[in-house]
């Protein structure tokens, strides 16, 4: 397995990922290594396989073929495709964080309950979980909004709650799907700043699907998909031109 310059294996090493839906080939044999502390943007036209790839890397939906090897604290050399549903659910709760465009926060709960819930399902007692959630919300500029329900927050504030939830569990990899897609450009920039700070700024990895090139360019690396294949990878391009050590 390829190692990075510090001799560490990739946090996620995907090899030969293949996924089809009927006659549609969503992933046609994708190889992708994600390094510790790296921010990776996945771009490509609509239908090119971005979400399918993200879902496979995150253990949400398994590929039809291929291997996904994890190397995260508590998950050394784990083959995701061999895990059953229960084990993959545990993996997602413990090791991964998710910041999606919408739909992953629970609208009936308050901001603080949404964040604390992520800890409680990992076994943290309610009082401690609420304390840690309050701290995380305050760090993301949401002090005073803890008791608001999700519908009483703006789109940008909702994304901050999602980032707080991803951050609070200590997830090693955060997956984001169009995290700024529903936001105006100023709010989108603020949310992206916070997302990068909470992930790569804290030594974690970020894997983000985006249609927005200016958002992608804030990442260390951009891969572009077309018809289920990676057609460009800025890391490879930099290595080929000699500007990547
Ligand atoms: N559950 C599904 N059932 C059938 N076809 C699917 C399913 N999920 C994805 N596909 C198909 O697989 C291909 C890749 O879809 P995917 O959602 O990964 O693309 P995408 O690049 O994320 O697109 P978009 O930018 O529009 O979100 C598309 O042709 C899509 O129609």
UniProtKB/TrEMBL annotation:
Record protein name field: ABC transporter ATP-binding protein
TM helices/strands, residue ranges: none
PROSITE patterns associated with the record: ABC_TRANSPORTER_2 (PS50893)
Organism field: Glutamicibacter uratoxydans
GO molecular function: ATP binding; ATP hydrolysis activity; transmembrane transporter activity
Alphabetically ordered keywords of this record: ATP-binding, Nucleotide-binding, Transport
Source species taxonomy: Bacteria, Bacillati, Actinomycetota, Actinomycetes, Micrococcales
Gene Ontology annotations for the cellular component aspect, listed alphabetically: plasma membrane
PANTHER family in the cross-refs: ABC TRANSPORTER RELATED, IMPORT ATP-BINDING PROTEIN
